[in-house]
Amino acid sequence: MNRKTPQILSSGLIFAGIVAAGILLAGCQPTPLDLNKQSATDVPQEEGAISALNMTYSPDTLTVRPGATILFTNRDVADHSITSDDGNSFDTGLIAQDGIGEFTAPTIPGTYPYHCTSHPTMRGTLIVE
Ligand SMILES: [Cu+2]
How far is ligand 1, taken at its centre, from the CA of residue 110, in Å? Predict the structure, then answer.
């Protein structure tokens, strides 16, 4: 009788431990991680590209993921830049004819209008989502 009591106690503790582990495992399965995986696979495009020709950006609206690397190719004779209107989100600086610039999309989702520093009438929009 004296021998059995500790066994029952310890098996009861093991059972309680398994139940607790099960609760912890179940608690570790909520969706945030899964959602991140899904959005990563839903947006395979990791880079974008914008070109300038005839004083126009093409495309004039581009949607990218946060932090995407975007190439800017200037096919015009005049120098052009892609400069965010807010003045600090991104700026390729002036790119000469047939030159290629690069910038990193903001990490905060939103709509970022941009322009060319030499030709303020040249306008485009970068959408980060
Ligand atoms: Cu320009």
Answer: 24
- Name the helix (H) or strand (E) containing 57: strand 56-58
| Ligand 1 center to 23 CA (angstroms) | 60
* Residue 93 alpha carbon to ligand 1 centre in Å: 10
Q: State the pLDDT at residue 45.
A: 45
The verdict on pTM exceeding 0.70 is: no
**Which tens digits make up the pLDDT trace of 57-90?**
999 999 999 999 999 999 999 999 999 999 999 9
| Concatenated DSSP letters of 85-120 | TTSSS-B---B-TT-EEEEE--SS-EEEEEE-SS-T
CA of residue 17 to ligand 1 center, whole Å: 68
Of all residues in the chain, the percent with pLDDT exceeding 90 is: 64
Give dist(CA 123, CA 102) in Å, integer.
Answer: 17
CB atoms within 10 A of CB 101: 20
d(CA 127, CA 114): 11
